[in-house]
Amino acid sequence: MLGPFKPTAPLSGGLLWKIPWRLSSMQKARQRKRLRAVDTVVAVVDTALKKQGSSMKEVERWKAEMPREEEMRPKDKYTIFDRKEKRYRKGIHKLPKWTRVSQRVNPPGF
User: What is the pTM of this model?
Assistant: First the structure.
C-alpha cells in the first residue's frame, strides 16, 4: 500500500515483545541458583548474628515464613499465583522484575 495509509513496521510485525510461554532449562537453573543464593545470605546473616548473641526480627520472620529452595515444589519455583489466569498460575518469567522479587509463598490450594 502506498501513500499516507502505509502500515508501519511494528503494526505489521505482530507482538512486539515475544515472551515464550515456558521457561528454558537454563532460565530454570538460574532461578534455582538465585533462590539458593538468597538462602545462603539469610543463613550467613543468621549465623553472624548468633555469634554476636543477637537476632533480627526480619531474619527470624524470613526463616519462619519462607521455604528454602530444596523445600519448594517445582510448581512454586517456576510459577506464581495470578487470579486473572485460567488455571490461577502463570510462569514466573512473566512477572516484571522477576529476577529481583522473591515469590516463594503462594495462596494455599493453588
Answer: 0.80
CA dihedral for 87, 82, 79, 61, sign (positive or negative): negative
CA Rg value for the chain: 21
Is residue 19 a contact partner of residue 94, using CB atoms and an 8 Å limit?
yes
Summarised one tens digit per residue, pLDDT across range 45-72 is 999 999 999 999 999 999 999 999 999 9
Q: What is the DSSP code (8-state) at residue 66?
A: S
CA distance 96 to 99: 9
Q: Which three cell numbers stand for residue 36?
A: 539458593
**Whole-angstrom Cα distance, residue 36 to residue 72?**
11
**pLDDT tens, 67-88?**
999 999 999 999 999 999 999 9
Distance CA 74, CA 5 (A): 49
